[in-house]
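## retry 2 of 3
previous attempt timed out at serialization; input unchanged, resubmitting
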Amino acid sequence: MTGQQRFMSAFRGSFTSALRWHQLDALWQALRTQDMEGWYIYAVGEGPPSKPAGNLELDRFIDEINELLRREHAEDYCGIVYADNLACPSFIKIYDPNNLGVSCGYSDNPPLPGWVLSRLPPCELSAMPLPGNRKRWWRRLFAR
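## retry succeeded, writing output
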């Protein structure tokens, strides 16, 4: 199996939602307490990263995405972050609060997540180009 096939198999695998905000807090804590080396941070619509993020980059991304989600998903529940395992994640999908469509349940054409955190090197996911505000946010975050 190629790296691209492994990534796509994991991408299409089984995921559990961090339905409540406290579950998202626990997911971020689980991510921070395991070895933070080897995580790829992929903004879907930008090119996939060629190397894993460093600890500081991942920590900063968690802080910034957490702030963005809480600010722009003004609900009393989260429900837009999914992990392959909430207690010990290796693959996380984060949906953009401004582009949800049908992110859960069944759909013939479900929206892609806005961001993917993965231990596997990501491959290009077809997507609409990022809106200008998201490009600026992403590029400010990593000074690209």
